[in-house]
Amino acid sequence: MDNTLWDFDTNSKQTLIEVSDEFKIESLSGVPRDYFITRYLFHNDRFWGLYRENKVSKSRLRSARFEFALRDVGLGDKRLAKLMGKAYLEQSPLKTGLNEGAISVLSKLQSAGLSMHILSNGFHEVQLLKLEKCNLRTYFNEVITSERANSKKPDPRIYEYAMRLTGSIPENSVMIGDHSDIDVIGALNCGWRAIHFNQKGEQHNYESISCLEELVPLLCK
Question: Are residues 130 and 43 part of one domain?
Fold first, then answer.
């Protein structure tokens, strides 16, 4: 979902600008808003890594990324961090920016008779809201999140759960994702085919695409 279909970077950045302005972070800290956002993105990546390793809880992730970013700009205010975390989670899923070609490609894959599902480490209720707001829900049979599967990519258990739920087998399963370590390697380790949505031009030997339209000839044969 995130960064493959839903333009996470653009949607998240816009939300962070709105939330930072709403809580007057620049005037309170005396630090440029863009610097605060840079620090948030750093801590967000760090805490998502800890979350995937089951070292922090969902609730801790939601507040800690703001707490540490605020601390970096001289605002050690845990209450403010929680308020910003709540505002971000309420506003971010309402953004509707998609990666180029998302709707067109999904329509073509669906017309070709492919069964499509979401497989995400994102929070279940947030991913459902994103799908609804972007009019994507109709393309997917199952929305499989780490919370629903009680395991997170690249843990093999989430892929095994997905196959049990959808009645698929490894030979008929294809994972398409933007993260080579989390999406691609996790799927390959379970015997799936994996296609890396490689927008950043990473150097590796995995099967990859640079735009979503390239999926159509690869999957509709």
Answer: no
Q: How far apart are CA 143 and CA 119, in angstroms?
A: 7
pLDDT, tens digit, 9 for 90 and up, residues 170-219: 999 999 999 999 999 999 999 999 999 999 899 999 999 999 999 999 99
Q: Which domain holds residue 81?
A: 8-94
The Cα 7–Cα 3 span in angstroms is 5
Q: Against a cut of 0.70, is the pTM above it?
A: yes
Confirm if 132 and 143 have CB atoms less than 8 A apart.
no
Are residues 80 and 32 in contact, defined by beta-carbon separation less than 8 angstroms? no
Please state, in angstroms and rounded to a whole number, the distance separating the CA atoms of residues 53 and 60. Answer: 14
Q: Do 88 and 110 belong together in one domain?
A: no
CATH of the domain at 38: 1.10.150.240
- Residue-wise pLDDT for 21-36, tens only, equals 999 999 999 999 999 9
Decide which of 61, 94, 127 is a domain's last residue.
Answer: 94
For residues 66 and 88, what is the distance between their CA atoms, to the nearest angstrom? 10
For 190, the token pair is 């379970």
